[in-house]
Recover the amino acids of this structure.
């Protein structure tokens, strides 16, 4: 594949933005193909299927996971007001918040969607991963002509002959591994070299086999796929192509809608909803955005957040459909502390679905991730993993940057921004060991040094 320096027209974005991107400078990219009224229903991609599957097996989930006792087997997370975080961020002048910081109050209401605290798996991966394993288990029982609960001894006798395998930087492995092992499958997780040691340890402690691979996330997925191929007793959960994962994530839209309703939040064109979601390969944020678009149409605006070293979805959506693109093509190295987001190429299943549906993507450097992880704890007492903090500056980008103002104008939003609701999707953290959280907090605290401008104008 040729490099972009010889092909400036390969990506549909201003040359200055492409340059910033290759220099690892944070940007907000507004999707030129965004179509507020794009037909978003894709036949056979029905979030309702996933909702029903979760409902059908809630009693099983409740029995096999003590953590799901309280929710009667429902895999869900809270929606919490986050204006306290908004106040701190709008006045935070870290070394890397130049472009998106404001000297004015944040507008609209901020919320945080607490997938960092999703039971059992501790990340957004519980949604997609659980859904896929439930669906595999159902199919297996059907193909054996057996009718029984997924946690019956008869089911587990059948499952024990099968392997569920997955390639992951960590969180997907935790989600798939934990539920597969609990239902009686043999579980194998292929991990990239950037996977965190504690995640490997955790998996092994649950009897899950961990296979380590040199190289990045894509290499781990490819190795897992190759090993499963041709084995009729192995199911490979393919993060780059899986419809079942995607649908599992999409069911989150319904959950959010119910919660917004319960808080009395109105979503319509006069009260726009903005949702900001960290993006790795694209399955989780893509599924959630897809579900939300189906529900709210042009009243919802979805933005993804990616590390400056791994903007794979941004590059994919900014290039011609069907082209193979990786972050290495523009000289980036895909090295980031946000292990859940360290992905070199976007999902070929999800990227085409997002082409007209997604409003835009902003990028975040690692320092900002640590700073914002720290500021979240300072303002709201919550501990998340750095990947989960990637979404936090979304509203500030929209409010304070040239590109964000352009988006507002283009979509007739300027007059309604005070009635907007912003949902920051917090995607992981509750399984992170305390010693790791301490390190994250320490790194964030060290970055708290005030911006030179702050002394002039004073932080809020
Ligand atoms: C996996 C993950 C994401 C992104 O999900 P993708 O499906 O890879 O795009 C975001 N945050 C965390 C913590 C994750 O583990």
């Amino acid at each position: 594949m040729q490099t972009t320096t010889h092909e400036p027209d390969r990506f549909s974005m201003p040359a200055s933005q492409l340059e910033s991107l290759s220099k690892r400078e944070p940007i907000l990219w507004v999707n030129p193909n965004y179509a507020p009224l794009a037909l978003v229903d894709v036949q056979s991609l029905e979030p309702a299927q996933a909702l029903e599957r979760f409902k059908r097996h809630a009693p099983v989930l409740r029995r096999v996971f003590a953590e799901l006792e309280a929710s009667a087997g429902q895999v869900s997370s809270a929606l919490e007001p986050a204006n306290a975080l908004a106040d701190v961020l709008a006045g935070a002048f870290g070394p890397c918040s130049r472009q998106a910081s404001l000297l004015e109050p944040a507008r609209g209401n901020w919320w945080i969607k607490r997938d960092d605290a999703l039971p059992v798996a501790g990340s957004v991966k519980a949604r997609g991963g659980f859904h896929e394993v439930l669906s595999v288990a159902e199919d297996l029982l059907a193909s054996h002509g057996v009718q029984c609960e997924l946690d019956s001894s008869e089911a587990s006798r059948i499952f024990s002959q099968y392997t569920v395998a997955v390639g992951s930087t960590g969180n997907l492995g935790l989600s798939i591994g934990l539920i597969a092992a609990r239902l009686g499958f043999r579980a194998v997780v292929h991990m990239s070299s950037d996977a965190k040691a504690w995640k490997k340890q955790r998996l092994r402690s649950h009897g899950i086999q961990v296979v380590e691979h040199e190289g990045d996330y894509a290499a781990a997925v490819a190795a897992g796929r190759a090993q499963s191929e041709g084995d009729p007793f192995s199911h490979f959960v393919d993060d780059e192509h899986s419809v079942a994962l995607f649908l599992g994530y999409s069911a989150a839209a319904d959950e959010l809608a119910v919660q917004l309703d319960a808080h009395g939040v109105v979503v319509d064109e006069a009260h726009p909803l903005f949702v900001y979601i960290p993006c790795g390969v694209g399955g989780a944020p893509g599924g959630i955005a897809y579900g939300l678009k189906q529900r709210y149409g042009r009243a919802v605006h979805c933005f993804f957040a990616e590390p400056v070293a791994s903007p794979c979805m941004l590059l994919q959506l900014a290039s011609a459909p069907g082209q193979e693109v990786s972050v290495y093509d523009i000289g980036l190295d895909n090295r980031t502390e946000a292990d859940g987001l360290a992905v070199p190429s976007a999902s070929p299943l999800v990227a085409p679905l997002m082409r007209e549906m997604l409003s835009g993507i902003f990028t975040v450097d690692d320092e900002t991730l640590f700073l914002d992880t720290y500021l979240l704890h300072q303002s709201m007492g919550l501990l998340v993993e750095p990947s989960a903090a990637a979404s936090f500056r979304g509203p500030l980008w929209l409010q304070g940057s040239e590109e964000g103002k352009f988006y507002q104008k283009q979509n007739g939003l300027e007059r309604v921004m005070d009635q907007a609701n912003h949902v920051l999707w917090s995607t992981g953290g509750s399984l992170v060991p305390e010693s790791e959280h301490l390190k994250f907090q320490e790194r964030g605290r060290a970055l708290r040094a005030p911006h030179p401008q702050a002394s002039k104008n004073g932080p809020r």
About this structure: Residues 274 and 422 are 5 Å apart (CA to CA).
